[in-house]
């Protein structure tokens, strides 16, 4: 089984979370009755609706969350095949 390239996965997942954040902020501005900014304030430390410094802080945090998920998933996808080989050879 091939490993997931961590750098590529991290960049793509971080770009996805950053674009999703921008889309959600634009959605909140366009349809304020369905706004999610209370959720963003709980998920992103320091985020306050809506100031420019807070917007860029939220964007950086969304990007960082993408890297966090990519690194954790990359480690899991690296160690699970190793552990399965250890357990299948040990218990044969």
What is the mean pLDDT? 87
Structural class: mainly alpha
Order of helices and strands: HHH
Count the helices. How many?
A: 3
The gross shape turns out to be elongated
Multimerization state: single chain
Number of strands: 0
The profile of the biggest β sheet is: none
Percentage of residues assigned to helices:
over 70%
Radius of gyration, in angstroms, nearest whole number: 18 Å
| Unreliable spans | none
Distance between the termini: 21 Å
Task: Assess the beta-strand content as a share of residues.
Answer: under 5%
What does this 3D model show about the protein?
The chain has 92 residues and is mostly helical. It is 77% helix and 0% strand. Helix 1 (6-30) crosses helix 3 (52-90). The relative contact order is 0.16.
Summarize the SSE layout with pairings.
Elements: H1 6-30, H2 37-43, H3 52-90
Helix pairs in contact: 1-3
How would you concisely characterize the structure shown here?
The protein has helices spanning 6-30, 37-43, 52-90.
List the keywords.
92 residues, mainly alpha, 0% strand
